[in-house]
């Protein structure tokens, strides 16, 4: 498999550590993860430049003159992953608020430093697999039971009855032994129940499973980046630069507590300034224009409108004035 390197730039050590812990929890090895703070790149490396240092120089985050694109408090998380891990690692870094390294490098280049001459258009692809899950089942077991039964049975019994009959007759020859002791025994017979038990199978329970297929619709949101090309002539660029201080002041008021860098919001000021010069968006006040501007913004799949709306509005106001 091909090893790939992912970079996540974080504004605090806490976020970088949180992302690192999450990566390790998801099975990434500690030896495949590096965390560096900005101070490690404020000085020139030794005679043998580290692999990470060289990689950042190639990315344009470190200039040939030793200057760097890091800011105070920045932390960099570097992850080595194979093809099967790349998407999962990127998702973890993004989930913990990783900044766009390419945007930082681009901003660095605008300040006169080295930076790569390309932007990448990235789109997520939906990959759907399956995994076994429990859907319930049955448990079949046996347990001993008892029940009382009663049945009628006919029993034969003998009763002995002794009857005396008075008589007066001469004794006969067979009676000559009447003057000796004699005894007779007559025994009565009867029956009593004899109980026996035989185990018999009364029911058989068979267990089987029926396999079947079902269709399920999976809903997911795929992210992506589009590369937009905006031609800036010398006059348009000079016009924007003349008023950029207004946007920097507005950023300090509107976005200072949001955690977003000025470079993150700058494209929204540029967009508002550009549409402010477009006759289609100059007719009426902002309340009339905003729905059209927002539609164009969302048609281009730009980031969340509500967050960048103040910057677009400020750029639009400046654009219609100049």
Tell me what the structure shows:
The structure is a single chain. With 322 residues, the protein is mainly alpha-helical. Among the domains are: 1-125, Alpha-Beta Plaits, CATH 3.30.70; 228-322. 34% of the residues lie in helices and 6% in strands. It contains eight helices and three strands. It has a three-stranded antiparallel sheet, with helices on one face.
Notable characteristics:
8 helices; mainly alpha; Alpha-Beta Plaits; 3 strands; three-stranded antiparallel beta sheet; 34% helix; 6% strand; single chain; 322 residues
Instruction: Report the total helices.
Output: 8
- Per CATH, the architecture of the domain at 1-125 is 2-Layer Sandwich
Q: Which CATH class of the domain at 1-125?
A: Alpha Beta
- Shape descriptor reads rod-shaped
* Through-space gap between termini: 55 Å
Gyration radius, rounded: 48 Å
- Determine the structural class based on helices, strands and strand pairing: mainly alpha
Biggest β-sheet description:
3 strands, antiparallel
Poorly predicted runs of 5 or more residues: 64-69, 112-117
> What is the CATH topology assignment of the domain at 1-125?
Alpha-Beta Plaits
Strand segment count: 3
User: What's the rounded overall pLDDT mean?
Assistant: 77
Task: State which percent range the strand residues make up.
Answer: 5-15%
Helix fraction?
A: 25-40%
Q: Helix and strand string, N-terminal first?
A: EHEHEHHHHHH
The strand order across the widest sheet is 1-3-2
């Amino acid at each position: 498999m091909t090893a790939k390197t992912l970079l996540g730039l974080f504004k605090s050590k806490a976020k970088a550590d949180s992302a690192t812990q999450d990566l390790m929890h998801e099975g990434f090895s500690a030896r495949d993860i590096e965390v560096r703070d900005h101070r490690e790149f404020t000085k020139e490396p030794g005679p043998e430049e580290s692999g990470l240092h060289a990689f950042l120089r190639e990315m344009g985050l470190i200039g040939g003159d030793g200057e760097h694109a890091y800011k105070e408090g920045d932390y960099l998380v570097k992850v080595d992953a194979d093809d099967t891990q790349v998407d999962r690692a990127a998702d973890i870094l993004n989930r913990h608020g990783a900044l766009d390294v390419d945007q930082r490098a681009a901003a660095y280049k605008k300040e006169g430093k080295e930076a790569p001459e390309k932007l990448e258009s990235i789109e997520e692809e939906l990959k759907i697999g399956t995994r076994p899950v429990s859907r319930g089942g049955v448990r079949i077991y046996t347990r001993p039971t008892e029940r009382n039964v009663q049945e009628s049975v006919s029993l034969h019994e003998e009763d002995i009855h002794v009857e005396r009959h008075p008589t007066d007759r001469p004794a006969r020859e067979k009676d000559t032994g009447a003057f000796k002791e004699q005894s007779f025994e007559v025994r009565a017979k009867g029956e009593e129940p004899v109980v026996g038990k035989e185990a018999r199978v009364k029911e058989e329970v068979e267990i089987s499973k029926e396999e079947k297929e079902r269709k399920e619709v999976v809903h997911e949101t795929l992210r992506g980046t589009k590369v937009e090309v905006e031609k800036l002539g010398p006059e348009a660029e000079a016009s924007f630069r003349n008023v950029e201080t207004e946007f920097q002041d507005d950023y300090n008021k509107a976005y200072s507590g949001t955690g977003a860098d000025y470079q993150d919001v700058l494209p929204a000021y540029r967009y508002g300034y550009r549409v402010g010069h477009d006759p289609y968006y100059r007719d009426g006040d902002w309340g009339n224009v905003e729905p059209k501007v927002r539609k164009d913004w969302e048609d281009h799949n730009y980031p969340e409108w509500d967050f960048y709306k103040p910057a677009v509005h400020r750029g639009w106001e400046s654009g219609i004035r100049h």
